[in-house]
Amino acid sequence: MPEQRGRIILLNGASSSGKSSIGRALLPLLPDPWFLVPIDAVGAMRSTVHTRVLDDTEVGKMLKRTRLGYHRAVAALASAGNDVIMDYPLSEQWRVEDLLDVLEGYDVTLVEVRCAQVELDRRERQRGDRPAGLARTQARVYAHGEFDIAVDTTSTGPDACATAIADALGAVPSPKAFDRLRRREN
């Protein structure tokens, strides 16, 4: 049994805001071994061939199960003493509520990854691997109103954002955003 739970950095932002790029740029900047565990990687593990076509309700249930499992997989890694970077949009209130429950007692640093909507739209078109308008549907990503560190990728690259996050980690005051959210929920 590990002596201490691992730390968690949660990169929260809309699709195409730069969370994954920042996460990759953070890895070599952090002093201890960290795992980058993006939700997209978990989704990519799911089979793509089905014996039948899922209707919208079934797809919604499957996606929710995937996200609930993701929360618990991150908690499992951290419970064994591993430090984890999550790349995950808090775009639905139930995600926040579940993470507050699952990650209670963990050291979570919530990083708000901001980007202007016009730039998100441009990135989605350029990427071509996201449904058009996905970032616009994630309007609730910052609705909880709390964060520990904020970066804006509109005109700042992932390396500079990662450096700003790494530099700010040791100076995040207590209580952290997740603890403030938890207190507000109770």
Describe this structure in words.
The protein is an alpha/beta fold and 186 residues long. It has one domain (7-185): Rossmann fold, CATH 3.40.50. The protein has helices at 19-26, 39-44, 56-79, 93-102, 117-127, 134-137, 158-168, 177-185, and strands at residues 7-12, 34-38, 83-87, 107-114, 149-152. The longest helix has 24 residues, at 56-79. The relative contact order is 0.22.
CATH superfamily: P-loop containing nucleotide triphosphate hydrolases
CATH architectural group? 3-Layer(aba) Sandwich
- What gap, in angstroms, lies between the N and C termini? 30 Å
- CATH topology tier name: Rossmann fold
Count of domain modules: 1
Any chance you could write out the topology, listing elements then pairs?
Elements: E1 7-12, H1 19-26, E2 34-38, H2 39-44, H3 56-79, E3 83-87, H4 93-102, E4 107-114, H5 117-127, H6 134-137, E5 149-152, H7 158-168, H8 177-185
Parallel strand pairs: 1-3, 1-4, 2-3, 4-5
Helix pairs in contact: 1-7, 3-4
In brief:
This protein has 186 residues and is an alpha/beta fold. It has eight helices and five strands; from the N terminus they run βαβααβαβααβαα.
